[in-house]
Design goal:
The complex is a heterodimer of chains A (648) and B (194). Chain A has 648 residues and is an all-alpha fold. Chain A has 21 helices and 2 strands. In chain A, strands 1-2 form a two-stranded antiparallel ribbon. In chain A, helix 7 packs antiparallel against helix 19 and helix 13 runs parallel beside helix 16. Chain A starts with a helix and ends with a helix. Chain B is mostly helical. In chain B, helix 4 packs antiparallel against helix 5. The longest helix of chain B has 34 residues. The chains are: A mainly alpha (648), B mainly alpha (194). At the A-B interface, helix 7 and helix 8 of A face helix 1 and helix 5 of B.
């Protein structure tokens, strides 16, 4: 009995759920073991540790973020395929291949993974790659904190994937509304996996937010005043302000739900005075700004891409900055549009409905600015520009359906229907995913020194766009017809199956696009000599294009001095030189394993709470605190790259 | 860097980062305060604030924490004046007062639990224990930080790196004081008034 309490809630029965789940277990464990075996076989483990895992170079941390995010994207996409297949089978009179409970876990995992571990990961990845370069800085403000934040994100990823092997995931939807997510209705460890994977990753996000905010405010090169800063950096400043204000709300909210579940508290329970609507308010007070946290960086990327490929300075720079900041502020006043049906009353709903429509105005300003940038420009249609064109049309439709949903009277009709599902996929795929893929196609040459294959990239855009519309237009229709979201079976008499099949075909076309991108990446690595990009493959405008590709560890051999917006473009066209003066020694951060230790200990801590192995928690916490205190005794955190090497 | 422009420990990059961190912590407390505000009437038939709070005890806790904030500030001033022994003495006093505060709080919780007012009994009690307990956890973290700081300073000179850390600790301690004043007013005073 004592032994049992040492093991907390751990129980061998959590290993076996059924054949479908067994497939997932095999895939996860097998994938991890294959990677590990390959690393050992090719004797790359030490190399990986020294050159990547312990590196504090922001660009390398950025690449690691992107690699992990892409792996998670494949898993999240796998979840999507399973759901669509189930709905095709389940709307024609059959039961399909997923049980109701399993289907619920799949859509919970899909949403959680796509937002927290794909979109957030890609966002931090691209910021790490480009932000310091664009600001004319050698590094972020706090390199070690950057590494710790990455490993906290990775700890979240580990926990999510562990839930696939051992235990279960939440069957409660990606925001885990109580009272369903309370212990009384979800007694298993699934909700705890959900809670602690995003809790730990979310703390990492807050730390990253501090890091990038300070980087922007303190590390800009000489002469780069805020209003001379590239618009992508502006979008990151707006994003980080937003992120820092809302992620603590998420942390506190998850903490309270966790206390309900682990300590028997009554914040959001159905009895003893708990108030579930409090949770829903709090989670959306984080959740709505969160979608802007994801999309504002994408807006910044589009702004850079449109100006570069139109060979023209960005139209309305100042209005872009104001629009970003307006969105930043307004996004705090719209959260209740996620639950118009709560019963808050007509006046409250009217306020939030109108605020939601108002937020479309600064967004519209941005879209017009992009179009006017293209107007009379010499537009070059390379792959990043194709992504922008795809975005402009897709996002317009997504925004339009958003304004429809902002009308409470319409919202009451389509609330929790597939119409909503189609709307947010329309904005997130059309806005965020296309943006990040555009950003990767645009900036990857700077990091790796070669361009991605152009025709394969364009073919991928084709597939994504046609696939997206084929997959989600039927979902809009189904929503209008009354199909509720999160259902795994429909009465065949409703005749939904045809539209689900069309949607499934669309999913397959998107899958082809994903496949083409994987092929594109592999092919481009193979042909990297032919695809070699010089320091300025796109005729860029901002500082990152003024340094060699791949960018050196220290970013800038001599720090630039900036006098205008689009400093590099101005310098190329007869403006003052960016670099002058003698070379000096450069300090770069030394490799450090602190982040890795803290992240792994955080994952152990999360595992301990999930399975109620209470004795594990002080151990994990002591490791974290001890490692951090030990770090304060390290005097030499930097190594010197001598000036002589730089000139060579 | 060749530009050796002096920046004070509260306005340089590390200082700014720490200020920003404090603001995120403030958002966390704001969320807990909002939740407490919504749930404080939901006593589920159990006791309300005025049934269980003892203002005498809380007043003592408040005075102790305010004095510890004063000694933390004085420690920073001594460090600036280069008086290391004085600084160490004041830091130790700060730590003892902090520990005393924490001890009183734990005792308050113990008495409440002994009287059968557990956090499991109502939403009001859940939010009360969580809000006050989260502040207590912060104090505990501050004490660990304080011990590490004193230990570090024992055998080392007052370097700029150390001054940076001491300044941040001081900010953190004052911040916790500020949060406590809000807890004192909103939880205890308003609780007893109602």
């Amino acid at each position: 009995m004592i032994f049992a309490s040492w093991l907390g809630k751990l129980d061998w029965s959590y290993f076996w759920h059924g054949w479908v789940q067994f497939g997932g277990q095999i895939a996860t464990v097998g994938g991890a073991l294959t990677v590990l075996a390959a690393l050992i076989y090719f004797k790359k483990l030490g190399w990986l540790y020294r050159n990547w895992l312990t590196s504090l170079d922001a660009k390398k941390i950025g690449v690691m973020y992107i690699v992990v995010s892409v792996v998670m994207l494949l898993r999240g996409f796998g979840d999507a395929i399973m759901m669509r297949l189930q709905q095709i089978l389940g709307s024609g009179g059959g039961h399909g291949f997923l049980s109701g409970d399993h289907f619920q876990q799949v859509f919970t995992a899909h949403g959680t993974i796509m937002i927290f571990f794909v979109a957030m990961g890609l966002m931090f990845g691209i910021i790490n790659l480009i932000l310091p370069l664009q600001l004319g800085a050698r590094d972020v403000a706090f390199p070690l904190l950057n590494s710790i934040a990455f490993y906290l994100y990775l700890a979240g990823v580990i926990l999510v994937n562990l839930s696939l092997v051992f235990g279960e995931f939440g069957a409660v939807g990606w925001l885990a509304y109580p009272p369903l997510s309370e212990l009384a209705y979800s007694p298993g460890p699934g909700v705890d996996y959900w809670l602690w994977s995003i809790q730990i990753a979310g703390i990492g996000s807050t730390l990253s937010g501090i890091n990038f905010l300070v980087t922007i405010l303190k590390k800009r090169c000489k002469g780069m005043t805020l209003m001379k800063m590239p618009i992508f950096s502006w979008s990151i400043l707006a994003t980080m302000i937003l992120l820092l204000l809302v992620f603590p709300i998420l942390t506190a909210t998850l903490f309270m739900l966790s206390l309900d579940r682990s300590m028997g508290m009554h914040f959001f329970t159905a009895d003893m005075g708990g108030n579930a609507m409090m949770y829903i308010n709090l989670i959306w007070a984080w959740g709505h700004p969160e979608v802007y946290v994801l999309v504002l960086p994408a807006f910044g990327m589009y702004s850079e891409i449109v100006a570069t490929f139109s060979r023209k300075r960005l139209f309305g720079y100042t209005s872009m900055v104001w629009a970003l900041m307006a969105i930043c502020v307004l996004s705090f006043f719209v959260w209740a549009h996620h639950f118009f049906t709560m019963g808050a009353g007509g006046n409250v709903n009217a306020f939030f409905g109108i605020m939601t429509m108002v937020i479309a105005i600064p967004t519209g300003v941005k879209v017009f600015n992009w179009l006017f940038t293209m107007y009379q420009g010499r537009v070059h249609f390379d792959t990043p520009m194709w992504w922008f064109m795809a975005f402009a049309t897709t996002f317009l439709i997504g925004g339009g359906t958003g304004v429809m949903l902002a009308v409470p009277a319409i919202d009451f009709q389509v609330h929790n229907s597939l119409f909503l599902v189609a709307h947010f996929h329309n904005t997130i795929i059309g806005g965020v995913v296309f943006g990040y893929l555009a950003g990767i196609a645009y900036w990857l040459p700077k990091i790796f020194g070669f361009k991605l294959h152009e025709r394969l990239g364009k073919a991928a855009v084709y597939c994504w766009v046609t696939g997206f519309f084929t997959a989600f237009m039927p979902i809009y229709l189904l929503g209008f017809m009354g199909a509720t979201r999160r259902m795994e079976q429909f009465d065949p008499a409703l005749q939904y199956q045809g539209l689900f099949i069309i949607s499934g075909i669309g999913t397959a076309i998107i899958g082809l696009g994903v496949l083409l991108q994987v092929v594109q990446l592999g092919y481009s690595i193979w042909k990297r000599k032919e695809l070699a990009a010089g320091h300025d493959p796109w005729h860029g405008r901002t500082l990152e294009w003024s340094v060699p590709s791949p960018a050196p560890e220290y970013n800038f051999a001599r720090l630039p001095v900036v006098t205008e917006r689009d400093a590099f473009w101005v310098a190329k066209h007869g403006g003052p030189a960016l670099y002058s003066g003698p070379f000096k020694d450069i300090e770069v951060p030394k490799e450090s394993g602190v982040g890795l230790v803290v992240g792994l200990a955080a994952a152990v801590f999360g595992f301990g709470v999930i399975w109620q192995l209470w004795w594990l928690l002080p151990i994990a916490l002591a490791v974290i605190i001890g490692t951090l205190i030990k770090q304060t005794y390290v005097e030499e955190t930097e190594r010197i790259i001598p000036a002589k090497e730089l000139k060579a | 860097m060749s530009r050796q422009k002096y920046e004070s420990p509260t306005t340089n990059a590390v200082g700014l980062g720490f200020w920003v961190y404090l603001m995120t912590d403030l958002m966390l407390f704001a969320t807990l305060f909002a939740t407490y505000g919504v749930l404080r009437g939901n006593t589920a038939g159990g006791p309300a604030g005025h049934d269980i709070f003892s203002l005498k005890l809380v007043f003592a806790e408040t005075i102790i924490l305010l004095v510890s904030s004063l000694t933390a500030g004085l420690a920073l001033l001594s460090a600036h004046a280069g008086r290391k022994t004085r600084m160490l003495q004041l830091l130790v006093i700060t730590g003892v007062l902090g520990a005393l505060f924490l001890g009183l709080e734990i005792n308050e919780f113990r008495v409440l639990l002994a009287d059968g007012h557990s956090w499991q009994n109502s939403a009001f009690l859940s939010s009360y224990f969580t809000l006050v307990g989260t502040h207590g956890l912060h104090i505990f973290a501050g004490l660990i930080w304080l011990v590490a700081t004193v230990w570090y300073a024992l055998k080392r000179p007052l370097s700029p790196r150390f001054m940076q850390r001491l300044t941040m600790f001081s900010l953190f301690w004052h911040f916790l004081d500020l949060v406590w004043v809000c807890i004192f007013s909103i939880v205890y005073l308003m609780g007893v008034l109602a």
